[in-house]
Amino acid sequence: MKRTRKSSPEPAPLLAFGAHPDDIEFGCGGVVTRETRAGRAAHFVVCSRGEAGSHGTPAQRVAEAKKSAALLGATVEFLKLDGDGRLEVRAAHAIKLARILRRVRPGIVLAPSLEENQHPDHARLGQLVRDAARLARYGGLKELRALPAHAIDQLFFYAVTPEAEPPGAMPILIDVSAPEIIAAWTAAMEAHASQAQTRDYVELQLTRARLRGLRAGVGHAIALFPNDPLVLDSLAQVNRSARRF
Amino acid sequence: MKRTRKSSPEPAPLLAFGAHPDDIEFGCGGVVTRETRAGRAAHFVVCSRGEAGSHGTPAQRVAEAKKSAALLGATVEFLKLDGDGRLEVRAAHAIKLARILRRVRPGIVLAPSLEENQHPDHARLGQLVRDAARLARYGGLKELRALPAHAIDQLFFYAVTPEAEPPGAMPILIDVSAPEIIAAWTAAMEAHASQAQTRDYVELQLTRARLRGLRAGVGHAIALFPNDPLVLDSLAQVNRSARRF
Amino acid sequence: MKRTRKSSPEPAPLLAFGAHPDDIEFGCGGVVTRETRAGRAAHFVVCSRGEAGSHGTPAQRVAEAKKSAALLGATVEFLKLDGDGRLEVRAAHAIKLARILRRVRPGIVLAPSLEENQHPDHARLGQLVRDAARLARYGGLKELRALPAHAIDQLFFYAVTPEAEPPGAMPILIDVSAPEIIAAWTAAMEAHASQAQTRDYVELQLTRARLRGLRAGVGHAIALFPNDPLVLDSLAQVNRSARRF
Amino acid sequence: MKRTRKSSPEPAPLLAFGAHPDDIEFGCGGVVTRETRAGRAAHFVVCSRGEAGSHGTPAQRVAEAKKSAALLGATVEFLKLDGDGRLEVRAAHAIKLARILRRVRPGIVLAPSLEENQHPDHARLGQLVRDAARLARYGGLKELRALPAHAIDQLFFYAVTPEAEPPGAMPILIDVSAPEIIAAWTAAMEAHASQAQTRDYVELQLTRARLRGLRAGVGHAIALFPNDPLVLDSLAQVNRSARRF
Amino acid sequence: MKRTRKSSPEPAPLLAFGAHPDDIEFGCGGVVTRETRAGRAAHFVVCSRGEAGSHGTPAQRVAEAKKSAALLGATVEFLKLDGDGRLEVRAAHAIKLARILRRVRPGIVLAPSLEENQHPDHARLGQLVRDAARLARYGGLKELRALPAHAIDQLFFYAVTPEAEPPGAMPILIDVSAPEIIAAWTAAMEAHASQAQTRDYVELQLTRARLRGLRAGVGHAIALFPNDPLVLDSLAQVNRSARRF
Amino acid sequence: MKRTRKSSPEPAPLLAFGAHPDDIEFGCGGVVTRETRAGRAAHFVVCSRGEAGSHGTPAQRVAEAKKSAALLGATVEFLKLDGDGRLEVRAAHAIKLARILRRVRPGIVLAPSLEENQHPDHARLGQLVRDAARLARYGGLKELRALPAHAIDQLFFYAVTPEAEPPGAMPILIDVSAPEIIAAWTAAMEAHASQAQTRDYVELQLTRARLRGLRAGVGHAIALFPNDPLVLDSLAQVNRSARRF
């Protein structure tokens, strides 16, 4: 399979996967809005309707997710796997996700991190997306043959909560300090109005991003964890680092 | 201290530190030539004259290092610390290196990796450079006051041998596949003619780079290990990853 | 269960498991040929027919695997689990593998490594083999009762690709430098002719083995990762180590 | 430098380094006696006279160490570095140790482990020995030139206490179950009679060895941690592993 | 959900999960008896009847487990999941365990550790219990709605064998030195009389506890591994540490 | 040496070490004030006068440190080692610190963490304190003989910045949510008025503590990292854990 770098005018879309209707927004909404404002298309695949949550009906949750995605400049679809709180690592799920990868043909893919000491749906979805990114490249699964193989550029993991950050792994940090970015991200999180605990969640995320920002010498920053080493043509591509103290 | 990103015409220089006259070339020569060909100035600081080596007089070693640096487009200076095979972690050394950082004012700094199971001078120099990068930013050491404080953009570690790669750390990979890059790098390594073992060393380095390249789907690649998280404005900066199999 | 060390004339057979028809050959074929040439029987269990590969029909893949195994001096059987690209970690699979362990009664077992960031079938098969090695020792599962319990001597993991090597784990290295070993191994890899990508794969494996060899001061070497500590009667058994630089 | 494997009649000697007069005996005395009984010469280098201990004069400690070494079939010498409780990582020390390596020309070297959360002299001596093993191979340090370069076969670390075992590293286990081995080891530990705390220490070491033995299905075993991968000609060399439960 | 600390008279019960009838006793029986003697209720959930063991019928195993639990002052119930040697990580299992958590409403929960290189049922049960502790707190799974949500205070992992201890993780140690604690624990282990291998198992556990005790300066100690950081009001709560050598 | 647990009325003092005049306050001031308000004496040993800082004269720094310590209810002394920015790991320093330990005879000791990627003085002081805690227990160093041996209860590391937190280690969290604790801590940090960068530092620390608090379900919390396992008499001592999301 040929691996050509997308050269500008039309960057390959960003595709983000979430286990629940609000995971993407809370975990990496600021990154998404930053990318869409720079002209990259973004699409969300949400793998449950939050039907096991403490608050909000599935219909409400879906409506909130649509509103929230729109605030970030993204489109959204819902995929039924095993249901909220019930996700298992099944080959059939990975194949379904691989089909979506072949259909959307993203450059960047975002998925929840693999740390197991978090909501079990998160880590399992992360595993499934990683497997799917491999299956999408390989030739022969019969469920995939209708669509041409696709190799993504990079898979990044986001952490829905601080506990979900892989300990010891070095993240890349996306600077989301611009007021319009913070505003759009906050609005997207607040769009999940049914969530009683959301208030704390919003503060949790903004506090995390502020702490990352303080450490990096910027206002706010969001950490992503690359699945594979980055390949660079030049060090000029990465000339800022996060060390202030 | 203000932290401004260098915007193009004149990129901040690259500064590489080596414990012995051939360490930089063997460990990351391909990266240096790639950067100098793209218009970035490069300067080497070599912290011994190889006087404990099995072959070659100090004078020969210095001459070879100068020739080799020139082949990579870099300038070189020699710094006396404790001598070859005798380097210790002393605060006075870190302060000396910090002075050089304030004088050269680099963006990118390259230093040998911190793994202790390699030639002891390598890991100790890596530690000293990391400490120096901090001291160069701080205000008050009297030995440093004559020169204005300087914050580098990023410190990357290179591994002189495979054993020196930090296990479990995710590197960034620099694509050095272009024939002129490989040729310049090979010539620079071969310029260290006095070294009886050099023949194997050259094969070792090219085999390493080829293996990294095969894994990344390019010809050859060199791994660098960032000391701190990279801060990005956009994911468009890092849109290739190293996964081919 | 008594644990007696095999004393020479008839060493207990080696049993290798692969998820796809070419995994064993690419990951550790040189080790297998070295052992069979020293008089140890070797048997392969291949857990799919490669039916999801980009190239080659299942019938071709099976024929190639048989030819390849013969070149390494091994016999081969095929086991149907969930199919290529669909393997899941199921207790029923581990029990099937445990039955094979009780039937073949190997000393050494080789299985793909457990790193999850590789083809998902590989890591899952590795897990299943490890579980099976335990179940084969225990008394009571009814599917196993027809065959006497069996305790293997050691389980070693092989890495199909460099990404599959467990980071930070210290391998043992098998010296495969002898020309006839390299020739047999290369022939076995090339026997998988249907695989369009094979050319690169062969170079990948030989480059890996050469790099390991250069580091160890031999021609070529293959890394295996023991599942449990080795027990030795004397340090005379392990009197070479891999440090050349 | 040529690297020839010792072929039987006269195995290269074992050289063990200890920071205090009883470290070698407590940490790996059972291994030493096993090797000397198999016909390998053993020599101890003790790098202080225990002059900072709570009990026993330096003269007593030296006498006890000599008696203890003799019980294990080893010779012993004392080397003055910085003194008990005062050891620092200095290049001059590593060079002194390298001279001893060139003089004794051992195959196997034993040194205290590198974990820092133990008596500070232990970890520092471990580092110095590792560095010395490198310097002994290299050509040119003027303090070393009088003696020909020497490459050891393997460096193993022993842990004086359980806290000193490197977490996560896989050891090799030496079976020391034979009654005469246990008896000689115990006698050697008890020869350090001045040590008030010795009673507990002896129980500590025998309990450790019994626990390792129970896990491995033998009577008693001692763990050693290799500094570099083992290189094997055949898997027949390592056909027992430590898994009983 | 409100999180109130239990203030004395009636401490919240301890709930321990085991995959086989003797796992809790062997892994952490001394801890349980210590807690019950201090007035805390304890309940065991055993997730198979040991029907795949080498010795003992399911009926015998159940009888032994009941006797053993009584010796430790605990009650016991049996839960059928997939059966001995067949446990899989299924969402339905975690939901069943979450129901038990809502019913028993424990403060402390004990579960087998997550290390995969042990009996596969152990690690999988550990994962299921961790997931269940989360699901028990969340509002909405329909199978759970009949019982009010419950947040446990802390989940601790116990290791059935030394291999099951997570390498590199710092445990907390429970002092079980009192003669009546050791006696009750030993009796509880010996109550599993059908187990041919039990004799060794008892010695294994007492040797482990003695080694932990020797290291900590007490008689015997058992290690537990907390799933989440402990939250303290004051350092006065934790004023002993385990360092004797 | 006898190891008796302090039973209430008069808890053993807390002793905290800092490399610079403001390190203790910024890294763990909230913990100190919590302990002193509960009746425990606290003493600070500051190992430089901040003479290499960008702002503030040594005299100002000393005055600020005294004021700040008083606000936390602690006394303070200054110890001259190598000077600010110049600290080295020397045995003589560890012996000096051990003397202070024997003089103050603390239960709890706080020291900067050992992560090397922070200000070099921090990690080195942490190492020296750990070594000193050992030397204070041992009998014989002549510089120490005038004072009776002393075994501390526990050594905890604090992290001056987030970068200094040991990755992957599980901390204990001290709840510092009470308004009077936050107020005293904030005042103590602000007492270091000469520090131009202090403003950000105060926000950094409060943001860190708020993020820890949000995760733990309390207002604010500070993480400490124990050097050795905690030994408990009962799980009732540790009945809260930090998991809220």
N-to-C CA distance of chain A? 45 Å
Number of helices of chain A: 6
Please summarize the sheet with the most strands of chain A. 7 strands, mixed
**Chain oligomer state:** homohexamer
The best one-word shape of chain A is globular
Of all protein chain pairs, which has the greatest interface, and how many residues does each chain bring to it?
Answer: A-B, 48 and 49 residues
**How many E-type strands of chain A?**
8
The helix content of chain A, as a percent range, equals 25-40%
Structural class of chain A: alpha/beta
Write structural notes for this entry.
The structure is a homohexamer of 245-residue chains. By secondary structure, chain A is α/β, with parallel strands linked by helices. Helices cover 37% and strands 16% of the residues of chain A. Chain A has helices spanning 23-37, 58-71, 91-104, 120-135, 179-190, 198-216; strands at residues 14-18, 42-46, 74-78, 108-112, 154-158, 172-175, 221-226, 230-232. Chain A has a 7-stranded mixed beta sheet with strand order 3-2-1-4-5-7-6, with helices on both faces. In chain A, β2 (42-46), α2 (58-71) and β3 form a beta-alpha-beta unit. In chain A, α1 (23-37) runs antiparallel to α5 (179-190) and α3 crosses α4 (120-135). The longest helix of chain A is centred in the C-terminal third of the chain and has 19 residues, at 198-216. The N and C termini of chain A lie far apart (45 Å). In chain A, 62% of the residues are buried. Chains A and B meet through α1, β5, β6, β7 and β8 of A and α1, β5, β6, β7 and β8 of B.
